[in-house]
Write a structure and sequence with these properties.
alpha/beta, Rossmann fold, 2 domains, three-stranded mixed beta sheet, 18% strand
Protein backbone atom coordinates (compact mmCIF):
# COMPACT_ATOMS: atom_id res chain seq x y z
CA UNK A 1 0.00 0.00 0.00
CA UNK A 2 1.44 3.31 -1.06
CA UNK A 3 1.90 6.12 1.44
CA UNK A 4 0.97 8.50 -1.37
CA UNK A 5 -2.59 7.26 -1.43
CA UNK A 6 -4.92 9.95 -0.13
CA UNK A 7 -8.28 8.26 -0.37
CA UNK A 8 -8.58 5.62 2.34
CA UNK A 9 -10.27 2.36 1.39
CA UNK A 10 -12.75 0.85 3.81
CA UNK A 11 -14.42 -2.55 3.53
CA UNK A 12 -17.55 -3.01 5.65
CA UNK A 13 -18.65 -6.61 6.02
CA UNK A 14 -22.38 -6.34 6.65
CA UNK A 15 -22.54 -2.86 5.19
CA UNK A 16 -26.24 -3.05 4.34
CA UNK A 17 -27.37 -3.29 7.97
CA UNK A 18 -28.25 -0.59 10.49
CA UNK A 19 -24.72 -0.02 11.81
CA UNK A 20 -23.18 -0.64 8.38
CA UNK A 21 -25.27 2.11 6.80
CA UNK A 22 -24.25 4.70 9.39
CA UNK A 23 -20.60 3.64 9.21
CA UNK A 24 -20.59 3.88 5.41
CA UNK A 25 -22.23 7.32 5.59
CA UNK A 26 -19.59 8.51 8.06
CA UNK A 27 -16.77 7.16 5.88
CA UNK A 28 -18.16 8.86 2.77
CA UNK A 29 -18.22 12.16 4.69
CA UNK A 30 -14.50 11.61 5.28
CA UNK A 31 -14.09 11.15 1.51
CA UNK A 32 -13.12 7.50 1.90
CA UNK A 33 -13.77 4.83 -0.71
CA UNK A 34 -16.37 2.42 0.72
CA UNK A 35 -17.10 -1.17 -0.29
CA UNK A 36 -19.74 -3.36 1.36
CA UNK A 37 -19.97 -7.15 1.38
CA UNK A 38 -23.27 -8.70 2.42
CA UNK A 39 -25.65 -11.49 1.49
CA UNK A 40 -28.51 -9.04 0.88
CA UNK A 41 -28.99 -5.91 -1.17
CA UNK A 42 -29.46 -2.74 0.87
CA UNK A 43 -33.01 -1.70 1.70
CA UNK A 44 -34.13 1.51 0.04
CA UNK A 45 -33.74 3.50 3.30
CA UNK A 46 -30.14 2.27 3.66
CA UNK A 47 -28.87 2.50 0.08
CA UNK A 48 -25.96 4.89 -0.55
CA UNK A 49 -25.08 5.76 -4.14
CA UNK A 50 -21.33 6.06 -3.61
CA UNK A 51 -20.93 2.69 -1.87
CA UNK A 52 -19.85 -0.32 -3.94
CA UNK A 53 -22.16 -3.15 -2.87
CA UNK A 54 -20.90 -6.71 -3.33
CA UNK A 55 -23.14 -9.69 -2.63
CA UNK A 56 -21.31 -12.63 -1.12
CA UNK A 57 -21.69 -15.13 1.72
CA UNK A 58 -18.65 -14.92 4.03
CA UNK A 59 -19.18 -18.58 4.93
CA UNK A 60 -17.84 -19.48 1.46
CA UNK A 61 -14.04 -18.99 1.54
CA UNK A 62 -13.35 -19.69 -2.16
CA UNK A 63 -16.00 -17.24 -3.35
CA UNK A 64 -14.84 -14.68 -0.80
CA UNK A 65 -11.24 -14.92 -1.99
CA UNK A 66 -12.29 -14.40 -5.62
CA UNK A 67 -14.30 -11.30 -4.72
CA UNK A 68 -11.77 -9.62 -2.41
CA UNK A 69 -9.02 -8.89 -4.89
CA UNK A 70 -8.11 -5.27 -4.22
CA UNK A 71 -6.35 -3.95 -1.15
CA UNK A 72 -8.11 -2.16 1.68
CA UNK A 73 -6.72 0.03 4.42
CA UNK A 74 -9.40 -0.83 6.97
CA UNK A 75 -11.88 -3.68 7.44
CA UNK A 76 -14.85 -3.54 9.82
CA UNK A 77 -16.64 -6.84 10.38
CA UNK A 78 -20.34 -6.36 11.14
CA UNK A 79 -21.26 -9.52 9.25
CA UNK A 80 -23.26 -12.52 10.40
CA UNK A 81 -26.65 -14.14 10.15
CA UNK A 82 -29.30 -11.94 11.79
CA UNK A 83 -31.87 -14.62 12.65
CA UNK A 84 -30.22 -16.41 15.57
CA UNK A 85 -32.84 -19.20 15.61
CA UNK A 86 -30.83 -21.13 13.02
CA UNK A 87 -27.91 -22.25 15.19
CA UNK A 88 -25.73 -23.63 12.39
CA UNK A 89 -26.03 -20.54 10.20
CA UNK A 90 -25.43 -18.34 13.24
CA UNK A 91 -22.22 -20.17 14.18
CA UNK A 92 -20.98 -20.47 10.59
CA UNK A 93 -21.60 -16.85 9.65
CA UNK A 94 -20.30 -15.25 12.84
CA UNK A 95 -17.35 -17.54 13.63
CA UNK A 96 -16.38 -19.37 10.43
CA UNK A 97 -17.09 -16.19 8.42
CA UNK A 98 -14.76 -14.24 10.70
CA UNK A 99 -12.00 -16.84 10.25
CA UNK A 100 -12.46 -16.77 6.47
CA UNK A 101 -12.01 -13.01 6.45
CA UNK A 102 -8.87 -13.10 8.56
CA UNK A 103 -7.38 -15.82 6.33
CA UNK A 104 -7.57 -13.32 3.49
CA UNK A 105 -6.60 -10.12 5.28
CA UNK A 106 -3.64 -11.34 7.27
CA UNK A 107 -1.92 -11.77 3.90
CA UNK A 108 -2.89 -8.29 2.71
CA UNK A 109 -1.29 -6.24 5.51
CA UNK A 110 -4.21 -4.01 6.38
CA UNK A 111 -3.83 -1.21 8.93
CA UNK A 112 -6.86 -2.11 11.01
CA UNK A 113 -9.47 -4.87 11.40
CA UNK A 114 -12.34 -3.93 13.70
CA UNK A 115 -14.52 -6.80 14.89
CA UNK A 116 -17.91 -5.90 16.28
CA UNK A 117 -18.43 -8.15 19.28
CA UNK A 118 -21.35 -8.22 21.68
CA UNK A 119 -22.16 -7.87 25.36
CA UNK A 120 -23.80 -11.30 24.98
CA UNK A 121 -20.25 -12.70 25.15
CA UNK A 122 -20.34 -12.09 28.91
CA UNK A 123 -23.23 -14.48 29.41
CA UNK A 124 -24.63 -14.25 32.93
CA UNK A 125 -21.62 -12.36 34.33
CA UNK A 126 -22.67 -9.72 36.81
CA UNK A 127 -22.60 -6.05 35.85
CA UNK A 128 -20.75 -3.79 35.39
CA UNK A 129 -19.18 -6.23 32.95
CA UNK A 130 -15.43 -5.87 32.51
CA UNK A 131 -13.31 -6.90 29.51
CA UNK A 132 -10.81 -8.81 31.68
CA UNK A 133 -13.51 -11.29 32.78
CA UNK A 134 -12.64 -14.79 31.52
CA UNK A 135 -15.64 -16.58 30.04
CA UNK A 136 -15.84 -20.20 28.92
CA UNK A 137 -17.78 -20.25 25.65
CA UNK A 138 -19.37 -23.59 26.63
CA UNK A 139 -21.08 -21.86 29.56
CA UNK A 140 -22.99 -19.55 27.21
CA UNK A 141 -26.57 -20.52 26.36
CA UNK A 142 -26.76 -18.39 23.22
CA UNK A 143 -25.22 -19.75 19.99
CA UNK A 144 -24.72 -16.14 18.91
CA UNK A 145 -22.82 -15.41 22.14
CA UNK A 146 -20.67 -18.53 21.67
CA UNK A 147 -19.86 -17.61 18.06
CA UNK A 148 -18.92 -14.05 19.02
CA UNK A 149 -16.74 -15.20 21.94
CA UNK A 150 -15.00 -17.86 19.84
CA UNK A 151 -14.30 -15.12 17.26
CA UNK A 152 -12.89 -12.81 19.94
CA UNK A 153 -10.61 -15.55 21.30
CA UNK A 154 -9.46 -16.49 17.81
CA UNK A 155 -8.69 -12.88 16.87
CA UNK A 156 -6.80 -12.10 20.09
CA UNK A 157 -4.73 -15.24 19.54
CA UNK A 158 -4.06 -14.11 15.96
CA UNK A 159 -2.87 -10.75 17.26
CA UNK A 160 -0.51 -12.45 19.72
CA UNK A 161 0.90 -14.89 17.15
CA UNK A 162 0.89 -12.81 13.96
CA UNK A 163 0.42 -9.22 15.17
CA UNK A 164 -2.86 -9.08 13.25
CA UNK A 165 -4.14 -5.50 13.77
CA UNK A 166 -7.49 -6.31 15.37
CA UNK A 167 -9.65 -4.37 17.80
CA UNK A 168 -12.76 -6.03 19.24
CA UNK A 169 -15.59 -3.73 20.26
CA UNK A 170 -18.10 -5.36 22.57
CA UNK A 171 -21.23 -3.43 21.82
CA UNK A 172 -24.20 -3.01 24.15
CA UNK A 173 -27.64 -1.92 22.84
CA UNK A 174 -27.26 0.35 19.81
CA UNK A 175 -30.27 2.34 18.63
CA UNK A 176 -31.12 5.21 16.29
CA UNK A 177 -32.66 6.12 12.92
CA UNK A 178 -32.99 3.49 10.19
CA UNK A 179 -32.98 0.52 12.55
CA UNK A 180 -35.28 -2.34 11.56
CA UNK A 181 -38.60 -2.67 13.34
CA UNK A 182 -37.47 -5.80 15.20
CA UNK A 183 -35.64 -4.09 18.06
CA UNK A 184 -37.08 -2.72 21.29
CA UNK A 185 -36.94 1.04 20.65
CA UNK A 186 -38.28 0.98 17.04
CA UNK A 187 -41.02 -1.48 18.08
CA UNK A 188 -42.15 0.80 20.93
CA UNK A 189 -41.99 3.95 18.76
CA UNK A 190 -44.00 2.28 15.98
CA UNK A 191 -46.63 1.01 18.45
CA UNK A 192 -46.96 4.43 20.09
CA UNK A 193 -47.23 6.21 16.72
CA UNK A 194 -50.14 3.90 15.92
CA UNK A 195 -51.55 4.53 19.42
CA UNK A 196 -52.14 0.84 19.87
CA UNK A 197 -51.96 -1.54 22.79
CA UNK A 198 -48.76 -3.54 22.88
CA UNK A 199 -47.60 -6.27 25.23
CA UNK A 200 -44.50 -5.66 27.36
CA UNK A 201 -42.65 -7.29 30.18
CA UNK A 202 -42.93 -5.50 33.53
CA UNK A 203 -40.02 -3.40 32.22
CA UNK A 204 -37.84 -3.94 35.29
CA UNK A 205 -34.75 -4.92 33.27
CA UNK A 206 -31.92 -2.40 33.16
CA UNK A 207 -29.96 -2.15 29.92
CA UNK A 208 -27.08 -0.11 28.50
CA UNK A 209 -28.15 1.90 25.43
CA UNK A 210 -25.77 3.61 23.00
CA UNK A 211 -26.89 6.01 20.25
CA UNK A 212 -25.69 5.06 16.77
CA UNK A 213 -23.55 8.19 16.22
CA UNK A 214 -21.55 7.30 19.33
CA UNK A 215 -21.11 3.73 18.07
CA UNK A 216 -19.75 5.00 14.75
CA UNK A 217 -17.41 7.39 16.53
CA UNK A 218 -16.02 4.46 18.56
CA UNK A 219 -15.39 2.47 15.37
CA UNK A 220 -13.50 5.34 13.73
CA UNK A 221 -11.42 5.89 16.87
CA UNK A 222 -10.59 2.15 16.91
CA UNK A 223 -9.57 2.21 13.26
CA UNK A 224 -7.03 4.96 13.92
CA UNK A 225 -5.80 3.90 17.38
CA UNK A 226 -2.56 1.95 17.72
CA UNK A 227 -3.20 1.39 21.42
CA UNK A 228 -6.46 -0.42 20.67
CA UNK A 229 -4.82 -3.19 18.65
CA UNK A 230 -5.10 -6.57 20.33
CA UNK A 231 -7.69 -5.19 22.77
CA UNK A 232 -11.28 -6.04 23.66
CA UNK A 233 -13.15 -2.83 24.49
CA UNK A 234 -16.68 -2.39 25.77
CA UNK A 235 -18.81 0.15 23.91
CA UNK A 236 -21.48 1.10 26.39
CA UNK A 237 -22.43 4.06 28.53
CA UNK A 238 -21.95 2.28 31.84
CA UNK A 239 -25.23 3.93 32.89
CA UNK A 240 -28.09 1.43 32.56
CA UNK A 241 -31.66 2.57 32.02
CA UNK A 242 -34.80 0.74 33.08
CA UNK A 243 -36.77 -0.59 30.10
CA UNK A 244 -40.00 0.82 31.56
CA UNK A 245 -38.41 4.29 31.67
CA UNK A 246 -37.48 4.03 27.97
CA UNK A 247 -41.05 3.03 27.05
CA UNK A 248 -42.50 5.83 29.17
CA UNK A 249 -40.16 8.44 27.63
CA UNK A 250 -41.27 7.41 24.13
CA UNK A 251 -44.94 7.42 25.15
CA UNK A 252 -44.58 10.84 26.80
CA UNK A 253 -42.82 12.35 23.76
CA UNK A 254 -45.45 11.08 21.30
CA UNK A 255 -48.34 11.61 23.74
CA UNK A 256 -49.87 8.28 22.76
CA UNK A 257 -49.34 4.53 22.98
CA UNK A 258 -50.78 1.90 25.35
CA UNK A 259 -48.07 -0.34 26.79
CA UNK A 260 -49.49 -3.39 28.58
CA UNK A 261 -46.87 -4.01 31.26
CA UNK A 262 -46.56 -7.55 32.56
CA UNK A 263 -48.31 -9.17 29.58
CA UNK A 264 -44.96 -10.76 28.70
CA UNK A 265 -43.51 -12.61 31.67
CA UNK A 266 -39.84 -12.33 32.53
CA UNK A 267 -37.89 -15.52 31.84
CA UNK A 268 -36.80 -17.38 34.97
CA UNK A 269 -33.17 -16.94 33.94
CA UNK A 270 -33.59 -13.31 32.82
CA UNK A 271 -30.73 -11.08 33.96
CA UNK A 272 -32.21 -7.87 35.32
CA UNK A 273 -29.08 -5.70 35.09
CA UNK A 274 -26.78 -5.75 32.05
CA UNK A 275 -24.38 -2.87 31.61
CA UNK A 276 -20.75 -2.18 30.84
CA UNK A 277 -17.72 -1.14 32.77
CA UNK A 278 -16.90 1.83 30.53
CA UNK A 279 -13.40 2.67 31.82
CA UNK A 280 -11.34 0.99 29.10
CA UNK A 281 -13.01 2.79 26.18
CA UNK A 282 -12.26 6.10 27.87
CA UNK A 283 -8.66 5.16 28.65
CA UNK A 284 -7.66 3.62 25.32
CA UNK A 285 -9.92 5.36 22.80
CA UNK A 286 -10.72 8.54 24.71
CA UNK A 287 -14.31 7.62 23.92
CA UNK A 288 -17.35 8.47 25.97
CA UNK A 289 -20.92 8.66 24.65
CA UNK A 290 -21.83 12.22 23.66
CA UNK A 291 -25.55 11.71 23.20
CA UNK A 292 -27.60 10.92 26.28
CA UNK A 293 -30.73 8.77 26.21
CA UNK A 294 -33.14 11.75 26.15
CA UNK A 295 -31.51 13.37 23.10
CA UNK A 296 -30.93 10.05 21.37
CA UNK A 297 -34.57 9.07 21.76
CA UNK A 298 -35.73 12.47 20.43
CA UNK A 299 -33.60 12.06 17.30
CA UNK A 300 -34.82 8.49 16.81
CA UNK A 301 -38.49 9.34 17.41
CA UNK A 302 -38.29 12.29 14.96
CA UNK A 303 -36.97 10.00 12.23
CA UNK A 304 -39.73 7.39 12.61
CA UNK A 305 -42.40 10.08 13.02
CA UNK A 306 -41.42 11.66 9.68
CA UNK A 307 -41.64 8.24 8.03
CA UNK A 308 -45.04 7.62 9.63
CA UNK A 309 -46.39 11.07 8.67
CA UNK A 310 -45.22 10.59 5.07
CA UNK A 311 -47.27 7.40 4.61
Amino acid sequence: MSNLRTKKKLLIVGGTGFIGYHLALGALKKNWSVTSISTNKPKKIRNLNKVKYIHCDIRRPKTLKKIIKKDFDYVVNLGGYVNHDDKKKTMDSHFTGCKNLTDIFREKKIYSFVQLGSSVEYGSSSSPQKESKKINHQSLKSTYGKAKLLSSNYLINLFKRKNFPVTILRLYLAYGPRQDLNRLIPIVIDSCLKNKKFSCSPGLQMRDFVYIDDVINAIFLSIKSKKSKGQIINIGSGKPKKIKRIIELIKKTLKKGKPQYGKIKLRKDEILKIYSNAQKSKKILNWVPRININNGLKKTINYYKKLYDAR
